[in-house]
Amino acid sequence: MKAFQAIDAPAAPIAQPDFDTDQIIPSRYLQKLRDNDFGAFLFRDLRFRKDGTENPDFVINKPAYRQSRVLVAERNFACGSSREHAVWALHDYGIQAVIAPSFGDIFFANALKNGLLPIVLPHPAVADLLAAIETLPGSRIRVDLETQTVAAPDGTTHAFSIDPFSKYCLLNGIDELDYTLGHLDRIEEFEKRHDAPATARADRQ
Amino acid sequence: MFRFFRSLGYFKIKKMEMDTLHPQRTMFEKIWSRHQIMERDDGKVLLYVDKHWVHDISAAAFAILRQRHIAVHAPSRTFASPDHYIPTSSRNLADIADPEKRGMVDALRRDAASNGITLFGIDDPRQGIMHVLGPEQGVSLPGETIVCGDSHTSTHGALGALAFGIGATEVAHVLATQSIWQDKPKTMRITVNGALGEGVTAKDVILAIIARIGAAGAIGHAIEYAGPAIESLSMEGRLTLCNMSIEAGARAGMVAPDETTFAYVKGRPYVPGGEDWEHALADWRTLASDPGARFDREVTLDAGEIHPMMTWGTSPENALPITGRVPDPEKIAEPEKRAACERMLDYMGLTPGMPLTDIPVDRVFIGSCTNGRIEDLRSAAAIVKGKNVAAGVEAWVVPGSGLVKTQAEAEGLDRVFTAAGFQWRHAGCSMCLTTNGDMAAPGQHCASTTNRNFVGRQGSGVRTHLVSPIMAAAAALTGRFTDVRTLIGKAGRA
After folding, report:
1. pTM to 2 decimals?
2. pLDDT interval class at B18 (50, 70, 90)
């Protein structure tokens, strides 16, 4: 995972509530291995028409939004499937942060583990950001993880919260697995006393 | 790297203490606390994972382990079955035409073999959808923590377990450490009072709940379903109920284990026997939420007000009683909601205000981790028996596991379905999400017993309507969405 850098980039609106992970990446790409460029599959059925040509009406195909590195979305963004491919698609396309009033739980966790910053802001703040980038397409939003702030195109800043561990991992490009492996002794100690008489073990068969 | 973390003194581990101020605990809190390995001072908890299911989209997670030369920590707690990519027309790997998809099934076989993981493979009569297989084999048990790289893992919570879906990186983390970092979710109790009417199933209950609280209604919460109507559900009904907790945004859904649970679990292949069974049973009896335990949120429904349900839109929250009409966007005040409704009606090809029973049906799908169990097939077969699928309708039954299929065949259900004109197929996820190529055609309306009616979920341009198995059966017979109670009346009790 690469270290997270501050962002100052155009933002694109995804102004639909409950925008599910099937829309972010259709299920027909789930058999692709991680070494593929998943950016090509992002919003596939919305970005492209049946004949494979670009749909000029879809938001990130419009010239002003093409260079977007931030998405501003509605309530319950990326609800649905646990597919981490949704995060890979956003990441590989170049999206570095998504701002929304709420997220699908599993997507939120997946994003943090792949250097994509999910930012929860109150609904009115998100509505203001959406209005700003829709009124003036191409407007830039700044995201600073160090100070935990989002700056709207007009300079208004919004503070956001993030758990310090995820912040540390993102800023340093470190993943959680290393940290946990450092505590394997604690896990093994737990296993010895884990009171689970009901635990069916395959080796009891 | 981990030494670096520790030497910096980052994220100290908190000493764990019992909450003596609130001795009455919820079932969630009991299960959570007994799996807590340690807690960081930022509040995140490392939870021990009792059971971990992997499937034919888990290859990415095994690849992470290989790259880093890490072994699977607890192979005996890890179980595997291919379900997403296997064909439902045969049991032959060679029948998967796409080499990448075939590769996913094959990768699971290799990853399971090289890591000593129990595999219910494509040629195993027990193969099935993980969320059907886990309870069926007695692998998933009350009081356990259960995870899988699949959002419908919430299903297993029906046993009185804490079960939730995770992403690929988390799957790798669980494989490597048998544990997972979690924020403690809030708790929500959904109480359903009263008794369910005729023709009203667990599927209708969960659709009514999601319609009430919304697709984002339970974000950050673990739900406990309670009340007389829930207690009266069979184990299989409870599995259907908990399956769709994720469609309300919940981390998990659960039902307190009771005599129904114990009777269901007893004697299944992976369940301990003899003295171990007695110990387990005594322990499971302590799991239910204590009287007076406090939940962060309470929601109450009256079972008597729940009718057979169906969805009309592209979110599971767009569910209405079959007696209802398609919403009229003109009557929606808020512009955003009106626009969303218009967008959905356009995709679904519906006219505002039309009765739901005027919506035609082209495809019928009975199956999935939501409704692919034996009781689902029995109830649908009771509606179908002696009748015919309407002209122009293509109807499928896809059992949730190989053993469900075998059982149904032993009871003659396959012949009831095929005599009526249904296709009787092999077990798998199939048309729920089309990964194996089973799908409907653009523009078709599909009466589906699955869990998601998202745009394109069952094929590009396909219009999915979520229903119960008996409602799907009724739709197959009449060629349009039909109040199943009108058929039960004619045929006697289903």
Report:
1. 0.95
2. low
